[in-house]
Amino acid sequence: xxxxxxxxxxxITAEMLDDVVHDAANTLAANAxxxxxxxxxxxxxIICGQTADEIVNAAKLELPNRSQSPELDPEPxxxxxxx
Length: 83
Known about the structure:
Layout: H1 3-10, H2 18-34, H3 36-47, H4 52-60
Helix pairs in contact: 2-3
C-alpha cells in the first residue's frame, strides 16, 4: 500500500511528522559532523544540495580576518582522496 494513502486514511497530517523529520535530520547532521570535514562537505553537497561556493562562503564567515580560501571541488570526496 502507498505510504501517503495509508497515512491519509489514518488521518495522519504532515504536522504529525514534524518531530520525526526533525529527529532524522538531526541524526544525519550529527553523523556528518562526526565524519569530520569530509563528512560535513559530502553531507552539504549530497544531502543538502549546496554548491561548493555556498559551503566555502559559509565557512569563510567562521574564519578570523580571512577573505580568501581555496575553492572546493564540487564533487563529493571519496575516502581515498586528499582534501
